[in-house]
Predict the structure.
Amino acid sequence: MSSTSVTSSLDQLDADSFVGYYLISHNASSFTADNKNSYEFWFLGNMIRLIGDKPFSRGDVIQIESVNVKSQEIKVKFIASPTLRDSLPDDCCPIHELPTLVFLTTRVYLDEHSDYHIICDSNSELLLSYSATQDSNKIYALAALVTGDSVRISGAERTTRTEFEWIIDKRNSESE
């Protein structure tokens, strides 16, 4: 049987700095076995959990209540559903200005000794980042807040300078 180890590359991150952020959920919750409304993003037998105080759907406005790097959990409060035309709180910016929470993973196995540094462009903020190693292979997973129509998040290996990248591009249907 193989074992999996998970490490966070965000030891220097002040996770509490994200508390109070309003954002749009890109994922929907489901009722889990531990009686929580959560979305579970799995990678190599590990997960990052987005846990809501109430059920939430894709596109709903939620607010970050806490970020726990060690337990890989983001706790959120349901605020409003645009499809139900709920009103937003006074201290919340217009919905088209809110960041979207996305979860990403390399989905390819990298060398277990690799040491990638995650780099976000000006249209994104890194919320959580983890690497998981199993059977001499490593993958990287992260949660990021995305603003703007085009985002580039990359990983650069510190020794070999090898890079990978995620590109998120909101396509305008009129230009296609």
